From TrEMBL, chain A:
It comes from the Bacteria. Residues 51-208 form the DUF1638 domain. It holds the Pfam family DUF1638. InterPro entries: DUF1638 (IPR012437). This is DUF1638 domain-containing protein. It comes from Cognatishimia activa.
Automatic annotation (TrEMBL), chain B:
This is Methionine synthase. The lineage of its organism: Bacteria, Pseudomonadati, Pseudomonadota, Alphaproteobacteria, Rhodobacterales. InterPro entries: Cbl-bd_cap, Cobalamin-bd, Cobalamin-bd_sf, Met_Synthase/Corrinoid, Meth_synthase_dom. The keyword Transport does not apply. The keyword Nucleus does not apply. Residues 102-232 form the B12-binding domain. One of its GO terms (biological process) is tetrahydrofolate metabolic process. Keywords: Cobalt, Metal-binding, Methyltransferase, Transferase.
């Protein structure tokens, strides 16, 4: 089992277990459990995981500098560095940075897309512009990532200013977990949105890491 | 503890009342702003003066503190909501009294995007600064922008996007303006969380505006440049 908490992942991220190795993954803390699970299931022991604080999800302007710092610090310690962030609200800056630093990153606009599969998400997203997505991590951390930062704990009257144009909450589940489904339903209710459950598994996260793994097996 | 003395707005003199309105806007107190707006009107203030000196003045402080990381989005929204309350009282009066108008703007969120908080804030601050604002809402395709531009003949086109996936659509609109020979008819301002100055330049906008206050300053500056060019 993992020995870190969601709070640690949110605020501090996660340090790699080894300081040198073949592959270093630099990921969002919100993906830590999924990546640790994939590493374990697939036996990817040649991959080390460094997570940045998941709270950058709501402060995407902090992501590029944080990625740059880790890549600069670790580039001589690992053969390959792979950035497990999609664009994630950086407006193309992260992509340019990765190109400048000579490292690869996962494709897609955000984790909702690569969990669903970028190709499929691109197909359906035009019909889902009024959809608000949550992943396993975001369902667990709904209050820390949605409710409180938006001030809805103090000012619930703001809800419709934020969510008035939304219609539906889609819970993209990475793992089957009835407790999380119930919590996601509650999130939808609190936001005044219809609810849809959609099991995605790990989607393109798994296939992307698989090809990174093979590239330096 | 409720030792704090209750402030009776009608008992404050004009300067004190305007200062209090700054505080109340900062705290997002809509009812107090509405009450103070009515008090100033009863005292014979011009609607335009209430708008610029009290409401816009107060929102400028809010905008500056937002930029400096002292206030966050929820507080800005509450302040904007309070200002909206005052604006609702003043708007019909401003139209009657023929308040000075700096220019006209058409503003809308691009196709595929339903986010309108930033756009609404910009629209409100632009109105406060003396612009006529035609807000065409969310999820606008090229055709919607073009129809409104044609019908309204504004000075400025404002486009907003919150998503990395929708911001490229701004270029679609600008390219359409270019191919139809209308690009130079409008000042094009763009904004939204994932945008940056580089993106604004790359798509051919006249300026990227990082927040509502910058949008107002940029619009004013560009309007005055436009007037200077016309009179040169």
């Amino acid at each position: 089992m993992t020995d870190f908490t969601d709070q640690q992942l949110t605020e501090e991220g996660l340090a790699p277990a080894a300081s040198k190795g073949r592959i270093l993954l630099i990921a969002c803390g919100a993906l830590a459990r999924e990546i640790v699970d994939l590493k374990k299931v697939n036996g990817w022991d040649h991959m080390e995981l460094q997570c940045l604080p998941a709270i950058y999800h709501i402060h995407p302007q902090k992501i590029p500098d944080a990625v740059r710092d880790v890549v600069t610090r670790e580039k001589n310690n690992f053969d390959t560095i792979f950035v497990v962030y999609a664009d994630c609200g950086t407006g193309g800056i992260l992509k340019s940075l990765c190109a400048e630093l000579g490292v690869e990153m996962i494709a897609g606009p955000h984790c909702y897309s690569f969990f669903e599969g970028n190709e499929r998400f691109a197909e359906v997203s035009a019909d889902e512009i009024t959809t608000f997505y949550l992943t396993d991590f975001l369902v667990r951390q709904f209050d820390a990532f949605v409710w409180r930062p938006m001030g809805l704990d103090r000012h619930p009257e703001l809800r419709d200013m934020y969510f008035g144009n939304y219609e539906k909450l889609v819970y993209q589940a990475q793992k089957e977990d009835q407790a999380l489904i119930d919590k996601a339903k509650d999130c939808a209710e609190r936001l005044g949105l219809a609810f849809e459950y959609r099991f995605t598994g790990y989607g393109d996260l798994e296939t992307s890491l698989e090809s990174v793994s093979k590239s330096n097996a | 503890m409720s030792d704090e003395e209750e402030i009776i707005l009608s008992e404050l003199n004009d300067d004190e009342l305007v200062d209090q309105m700054f505080d109340d806007l900062y705290d997002g107190l809509k009812e107090e702003i509405e009450e103070a707006t009515n008090i100033l009107l009863e005292r014979g203030w011009e609607p335009y003066d209430i708008l610029t000196r009290a409401l816009v003045g107060g929102m400028t402080v809010v905008g500056a503190d937002f930029r400096d990381g002292i206030l966050f989005v929820p507080e800005v929204l509450l302040a904007a909501n309070a200002m909206k309350g005052g604006m609702a009282i003043l708007k019909p009066l401003l139209a009657e009294t023929g308040a000075p108008q700096i220019g006209k703007m058409v503003i809308g969120t691009v196709k595929g995007d339903i986010h309108d908080i930033g756009k609404n804030l910009v629209g409100m601050m632009m109105e406060g600064a003396g612009f006529e604002v035609i807000d065409i809402g969310i999820n606008n395709a090229v055709e919607s922008y073009m129809e409104t531009l044609e019908a309204e003949q504004p000075d400025i086109l404002g486009m907003s996007a919150l998503l990395t996936t929708t911001m490229p659509y701004m270029k679609v609109v600008i390219d359409h303006l270019v191919t139809t020979g209308k690009r130079d008819d409008y000042i094009v301002l763009v904004g939204g969380a994932p945008l940056n100055e580089e993106f604004g330049k790359a798509i051919g906008a006249d300026a990227y505006c990082r927040d509502a206050a910058v949008a107002v300053e940029t619009a004013k500056e560009m309007m005055s440049r436009k007037h200077n060019q016309m009179s040169a």
